[in-house]
Design a protein that fits this description.
This protein is 33% helix and 27% strand. It is built from 8 helices and 10 strands. It starts with a helix and ends with a strand. The structure holds adenosine-5'-diphosphate and magnesium ion.
């Protein structure tokens, strides 16, 4: 944490948020209240279908809600507008299945979030490759993702999530498709980033021991938050 002010500031403020699917038949989020402080590491558990991915998509403005309020890094996400600039500046997404683009190189994949900025091409490549080196992928920058192992791909996905120095990292079961040794490497990278960069980390996991690593544990049940 930098100082007292950032410690006390909520970077995520959600009140009575509701999200329905299937013409209102499925209440994916059914009145979510959640406050997360800047720099906090929060783990999110909950059974399959309890709304975890839906909630992350709301926070990252990948999807919009009908009811309630959601303010993230000072942006009112209930407004109907284009949030692509908000996303590229504030949010780093890490998914269970890395979601890399197969016909782009590792370096090009990491540069994607910078396309939304006015950084020059040469500088984009430099930044991406430097970050990849720090994640021990310096020798893979010109490879395509299909040539990489699962753990390497997830490290590329982490680099892509970090490249714009987002204030929030949303990690949706980032180790869910990896063996436990590789998963632990990925978790340690995320913890280190959280400690070093004062980034806010919201991590979805099914593993209690992973959830225990967080400053705070919450879970979703039937579209509502439970604090532990
Ligand atoms: N795009 C969608 N269309 C219809 N229903 C959806 C969609 N996305 C999620 N749902 C439903 O919303 C509920 C919550 O899903 P999700 O957020 O993916 O849960 P989790 O990530 O906790 O497994 C589930 O009942 C799921 O079937
Ligand atoms: Mg999910």
């Amino acid at each position: 944490m930098n100082n007292e002010t950032t410690t006390n500031e909520n970077i995520i403020n959600i009140k009575d948020l509701k999200k329905k699917y299937d013409d209102g038949q499925t209440a994916a989020l059914d009145g979510v209240d959640l406050e997360i402080r800047k720099g906090e590491f929060v783990s999110l558990m909950g059974p399959s279908g309890s709304g975890k991915t839906t909630l992350l998509n709301m926070i990252g403005a990948l999807d919009s809600a009908e009811e309630g309020s959601i303010i993230v890094a000072g942006h009112n996400l209930m407004e109907k507008k284009d949030f692509s600039s908000f996303r590229s500046k504030e949010i780093g997404f890490i998914f269970q299945f890395h979601n890399l683009i197969p016909n782009l190189t590792v370096s090009e994949n990491v540069q994607i979030p910078m396309l939304e900025t006015d950084i020059q091409d040469e500088e984009m490549a430099k930044r991406a490759n430097k970050l990849l080196e720090s994640l021990n992928l310096g020798n893979k920058v010109d490879q395509v993702p299909t040539k990489l192992s699962g753990g390497e791909r997830q490290r590329v996905a982490i680099a892509r999530a970090l490249v714009n120095h987002p204030s929030i990292i949303l990690a949706d079961e980032p180790t869910g498709s990896l063996d436990s040794t590789t998963g632990d490497i990925i978790l340690n990278i995320l913890r280190e980033i959280h400690q070093k960069e004062n980034v806010t980390l919201l991590l979805v996991t099914h593993e209690p021991y992973v959830a225990d690593m967080a400053d705070r544990k919450i879970s979703l049940m039937d579209g509502k938050i439970k604090e532990e």
